[in-house]
């Protein structure tokens, strides 16, 4: 678990301070040519990582709903996992 957190933190640090902006292509847009509802979320996340909420909102305002929801889900999942590990020990 600690290794996963370290790798994730290192990746965020490289993206934030190393000037690495790697955006994966949108498969939906490649196949259909049309924007999907999630288009701009990755760009918005990168703007938030660079502490630019105005640019994030311009990319996709949905990021301000998706990010807290995903964070709450991950926190709930982590707490559930840590409780199950504590009862098994």
TrEMBL record:
The keyword Transmembrane helix applies. It comes from the Bacteria. Keywords: Membrane, Transmembrane, Transmembrane helix. InterPro entries: DUF2752 (IPR021215). It holds the Pfam family DUF2752. The chain crosses the membrane at residues 54-75. This is DUF2752 domain-containing protein.
């Amino acid at each position: 678990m600690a290794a996963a957190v370290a790798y994730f933190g290192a990746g965020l640090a490289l993206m934030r301070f190393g000037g690495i902006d790697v955006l994966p292509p949108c498969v939906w847009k490649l196949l259909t040519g049309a924007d999907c509802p999630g288009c701009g979320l990755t760009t918005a996340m990168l703007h938030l990582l660079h502490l630019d909420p105005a640019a994030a909102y311009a990319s996709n305002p949905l990021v301000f709903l998706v990010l807290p929801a995903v964070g709450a889900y991950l926190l709930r999942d982590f707490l559930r996992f840590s409780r199950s590990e504590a009862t098994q020990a």
